[in-house]
Amino acid sequence: MKLGTLLLRNAAIGLSQLEAALRNQVLYGGRLGTNLVELGFIDLELLSSYLAELTGFPIATPTLLDGADKRLLDKLGGDDAHRLRAIPLGYLGEGTSTVAVAMVDPEAAAVDHLTARLASRVTPYVVPELRALYYLERHFGLPRRARFVRSARTAEAEVSDNRRRQQPASGIVMPPAFTLEPRKRRASQAPVPTTQQAVVSYGAACERIDTATHREHISDAFVEYAKGRCDALVVFLIRDGNALGWRGYVAPPGTPATPFEELSLPLGGASSLQSAHDSGQPFVGPPPSAARPVEHQLWRALNANPEPVAVVVIPVAVKQRSVNLIYAHTLGGAPSVTLVNELSDLAKRAQTSYLRLIRQARGS
Question: What pTM was estimated for this model as a whole?
Answer without folding.
Answer: 0.81
